[in-house]
C-alpha cells in the first residue's frame, strides 16, 4: 500500500480529510501558513515602527519601502510560506527562518538592505510568536467563530418566534410536566447563547514585546534612555490592534487564551445540551426531519431518517471541548521563565476551534431539516390531563380549600387521568363559578403560562 502522496483521503485528521470543506474558512487563519503570515506581519510592523522611533541610526522609511514591506504581508502566498519552510530546514528554527526570508526580500532595495539588521531587533522569538497567535485568534474569532455562532442564534431566534405559540408537553426527569411551547424552549437556548457569545467577544487578546524575560534588557542595552515600554505598547495596540500586557516572563502567560477557550467551551456545552434535547424531541416524534433525495438512514432499515446532524454536532463539540480544556489548563503554566511545552500545544488551536466550527455547521444543517409534528404534539398533550393538577390545586390554595395538594395527588399520581375525570373534580370544588369556568375551559394545550409571550420577546 502506497500512501506517500498526501490527499484528503489519506489525511490523518478528518478536519483535513472528510470535513475539509466545512472548515476551509479557518485554514488560512489558524494553520502553519496562518502563523507564518502573522509572523511576517509582526516583523514588518516592528521594523517600520523602529524606523519612526527617532533613532539617528535608523531614519524613517520612505513610502515606497513601507509599501514594499506591507505588500509582503498582503500578498503573502503559499509559495512564500514554502520558501520560509525551506530556510527552516537549515536553521531548524521557525522564527529565525522568517527573519532570514524577510531580509532576502530586501535585495533589490538599497534602503531596506542597509537597515536589515533592524529586522527582529531586540526581539526574542516569543515577541513574534505571542503577537502572531493573538492576531490569528483575533481573525478567527471575528471572521469565523462569531459569525457562525450568530448564524445559529439567528436561526434559533427565527424558530422561537415562528413556534412561539406551538404548545408542547414538557418533560422534567423524562416525565410529563407543565406544558410549554416549542418556541419558549428554543428562546431559552437563544438567551444562553447570547450570554455565552458576549463572553467570547469580550475577551481581550493580549500581547507583549518586551524581550527574553520581559524586562527590555536588550532594548535598553542599545538605547538606555528610550521609553521601550511605551513604544512596545504603541506597536501592539495601534499597529497590531491587540491589548498590551506589561507583565510577562519570556512568554505572554496565555491567561487570556484560557479565558477565551473556556468561553468557547461553555458555549459548546450549551449546544451539546440543545443537540441532545433535539435528538430526544425527534425520538418522541415532536420534530420530523425533511428527507433528502438519495440519502440513506440505515443500511438495513429503509424507513429510518436518523438525527445524524445533531449526533455529529454533539460528537464534534465533545472533541472541541476536550482540546479547548487542555489548552486552557496547560497554556498558563510554564516552568520558571520559559519552557517549550506551550509551543506544540499552540499549534493545535486550529484543530480545537475547527472541531467547534464543524459542530456548528452540523447543527445548522440539522436545524434546517426540522419540521414540527403538530399532530404528535397534540396527541401527547391530550393524553396528559394530569398536568392540570398543578393549576387546579393552586387555585384551591387561593380559596383556602383544605388539603389541595394531597387531594390532587390522590386523584392523579401514577394514574391515567381523562378530561372527564378532571372536569368532574373541578365541578365538585367550592370555588367561585367564574373561577370554576376558567378551570373547566383549560386544557393541557392551553396551560402554557407566558411561554408564547416570552418566546416572541427574545
Automatic annotation (TrEMBL):
This protein's species is Roseateles oligotrophus
According to UniProt, the reaction catalysed is: (2S)-2-[5-amino-1-(5-phospho-beta-D-ribosyl)imidazole-4-carboxamido]succinate = 5-amino-1-(5-phospho-beta-D-ribosyl)imidazole-4-carboxamide + fumarate; N(6)-(1,2-dicarboxyethyl)-AMP = fumarate + AMP
Q: Which residues form the Adenylosuccinate lyase PurB C-terminal domain?
A: 334-448
Q: In which pathway does it act?
A: Purine metabolism; AMP biosynthesis via de novo pathway; AMP from IMP: step 2/2; Purine metabolism; IMP biosynthesis via de novo pathway; 5-amino-1-(5-phospho-D-ribosyl)imidazole-4-carboxamide from 5-amino-1-(5-phospho-D-ribosyl)imidazole-4-carboxylate: step 2/2
Q: What is this protein called?
A: Adenylosuccinate lyase
Write the record's keywords in alphabetical order, separated by commas: Lyase, Purine biosynthesis
According to its UniProt record, which protein family does this protein belong to? Belongs to the lyase 1 family. Adenylosuccinate lyase subfamily.
Any GO MF annotation of the entry: lyase activity
